[in-house]
Amino acid sequence: MKTELTGMTRAELEAWAKEAGLPAFRGRQIFEWIHRGEDFDGMSSLPAALRERLKETAAAQPVRIRTERVSALDGTVKFLFALEDGNCVEGVLMRYHYGFSLCISTQVGCRMGCRFCASTLEGCVRNLTAGEMLGEVLAANRYLREKGGEDGQAPRVSHVVLMGSGEPLDNYDQVMKFLRLLREPGGIQLSLRNVSLSTCGLVPEMRRLAEEDLPVTLCVSLHAPNDEIRRRTMPVANRYAMDEVLEACRNYIRKTGRRVIFEYALSEGVNSSEENARELASRLRGMQCHVNLIPLNAVKERDMKGVTEKTVSRFLRTLEAEHISATRRREMGDDIEGACGQLRRKTMQEETLRNADRG
Length: 359
Hints:
Blueprint: E1 3-4, H1 10-19, H2 24-35, H3 48-57, E2 58-59, E3 63-70, E4 77-83, E5 88-96, E6 99-104, E7 107-109, E8 124-127, H4 130-147, E9 157-162, H5 172-182, E10 195-199, H6 203-210, E11 217-221, H7 227-233, H8 242-256, E12 260-266, H9 274-284, E13 289-295, H10 309-321, E14 326-328, H11 342-358
Parallel strand pairs: 1-2, 6-9, 9-10, 10-11, 11-12, 12-13, 13-14
Antiparallel strand pairs: 3-4, 4-5, 5-6, 7-8
Helix pairs in contact: 1-2, 4-5, 6-8, 9-10
């Protein structure tokens, strides 16, 4: 097993270099090259013999883009990232007026079991390492550099969203290390105020996160106005009641001073009535928060259905009338299987069929 260097801080890489019999400054050089997105072949300040030696024992870029799909509608790019062990995860690169936002995965699959999500259909294969999560960002930066910018400047990922496959707080320690690597001096130095972390509501970990002094935006997948509906669609609701989740959110707001984003996927006949909207408003009133309304992207293996634009507008107007900040989420990449887990699942199914044909 090769040593994964992307998961190391600059100090850790310096120590690793010294243990390998190299001067500490080589560790600093390697760290800087890694965060520029370079593999060993591109580390021109290192002697060729050293680069060849390092290839045998270490991995500088553990994530590669296996497949990319570019939306003809808005330029959104869906990535299938290949990992060193043969697994794959998804990412989505979106362009906004403020820059490029990358949605990354934190696990191969997911074990949360939410009824509306494709990522969880095969369960959780394993956690990603901090280095692999950073590797997703570095791979997207390489992609942007190769495409080039309109002004000749290579664009970079400026915002990161932990909303791909997996539950970030179910992989707590590695996610925390990844967040700290993002702002490591000499690295890509991405502001954590430009990072959003989404959870289905793991209350103890939400409380731990509030103590970390990491100014990320906490996004909570609520998707229901009460426990009864939430338990029908999200198994985690059987562990943590909605009141517990909301109190953990209030605690996060008190500790960090940052508002919480509530994600609410609208499904016909489940959670999308005006009565549901008024009940949701009553639960959130007085909280420093925002509701992100999401027309459900139906998964064929699931029985939940999407809603009409009329239903979305009615739900939104009802929340606004109740003085709850809310918007309809901008849909991006609808023509490239942009929903979480769909591209990975389709690829896995195609590979299974090809292997069966060979057999």
